[in-house]
Amino acid sequence: MLSGRADKARISKEKQKLILDAAREMGYIPNMAARKLSRRNTAHLPEIALCWSPEQHPSFLNTFIGILQDMTAGGQVREMRFTVLPYRNGELEKLASVLTANYYNGIIVPAVSDNDVEFLKNTEIQVPLVLLFGDIPGYNLVTVDNYRTGADVAEIFHRHGHRSVAVMQPVYRQISMTVAQRNSGFLESCRKLGMDAAVVTGRPGELYSNKIGEGRALAGKMLETGKVPTAVFIQHDLVALGALDVFCGKGIRMPEDLEVIVYGNNESLEVHSPSVTTVQYPTEDIARESITVMAELLDKPGAEPVRRILEAPFVFRESCPP
Cα–Cα distance between 9 and 21 in angstroms, integer? Predict the structure, then answer.
């Protein structure tokens, strides 16, 4: 009855209603795992868990789903069923019982914090695991070189003759490893190149209406110091939109007064006036490569871990010419 085959079993509508009402009152929840096992004629699809923190950029999740649909529909990879497992940065260990119980045939974990890395290092997961960050022995990796990206931005500013620069980043409950790595690459290269580099960010616990509002607040904070740099690396595309609004409103010219490079793929930065130079996180390539790696791992259990580092290309525009 509760499996949806009541009409085939010739159960009257009146009796169906009584049973459904009783089930609702009792708080009945179907056991989906048991249902899957009972459907012997249904083709088994590998179940993949995509761990997802709401602090990650929302565009990645949308892109990942679209790429997955295109690849499976085009026959590039086998069909897979994905389940999104939400968690917050630094709290991946709360999923430990699920990740270690072999409920899934594979697991994909995007960028996370140091706490989450420690959890993964000390946890034995039996199914194929693809990381989109860092490097943990025994696990598979599809990522970009974030440290190199930060260093490249610093080197560009140095070649353009800047001596006072800054990096602007949003506030995180626990900073993502990718942001921390880009910061390290940028600040360490600035130090080696003899540039004075400041970090512009908010205080933990400060509340903003959204990332654009946070960008406005951080730009205002930077201008209030009276020590305005001549170049700034903004670590989030939505934060950049708010900051640029403030800079333009104060009559700051780009690139004459301030050169700007932004990390992120927001299309609004292309049509902004002036147009904004960006480092493009290769969202589509990361999604496509991680799906491909997972499909390969499912077909070749026990294969050696793979490590694939993709390019994060610069797109030079008016705010920081090449």
Answer: 19
Question: For 146-281, which CATH class?
Answer: alpha beta
The CA distance from 250 to 252, in Å, is 6
Question: Per CATH, which fold does 47-143+283-312 belong to?
Answer: Rossmann fold (3.40.50)
For the chain, what are the domain ranges?
47-143+283-312, 146-281
The β-bridge relationship of strands 307-310 and 231-234 is unpaired
Tens of pLDDT along 223-278? 998 889 999 999 999 999 999 999 999 999 999 999 999 998 788 999 999 999 99
Q: What is the radius of gyration, based on Cα positions, of the chain?
A: 24
Long-range CB contacts (< 8 A, 24+ apart) of 171-175? 171/201, 171/202, 171/203, 171/204, 171/206, 171/214, 172/55, 172/89, 172/113, 173/55, 173/88, 173/89, 173/90, 173/204, 174/89, 174/90, 174/113, 174/114, 174/115, 175/89, 175/113
Cβ(195)–Cβ(164) under 8 Å? yes
Q: Characterize the bridge pairing of strands 196-200 and 231-234.
A: unpaired
Q: For 11-23, what is each residue's pLDDT tens digit?
A: 666 766 666 666 5
Which residue(s) pair with 83 in the sheet?
Answer: 49
pTM: 0.80
Tell me the residue type at 241: L
Check if 47-143+283-312 and 146-281 are the same fold. yes
What strands lie across the sheet with 106-109, from one edge to the other?
Answer: 81-86, 47-52, 106-109, 129-131, 140-144, 307-310
Residues 6+ apart with CB under 8 A from 82: 48, 49, 50, 65, 68
Residue found by looking up tokens 């003899």 in the block: 194
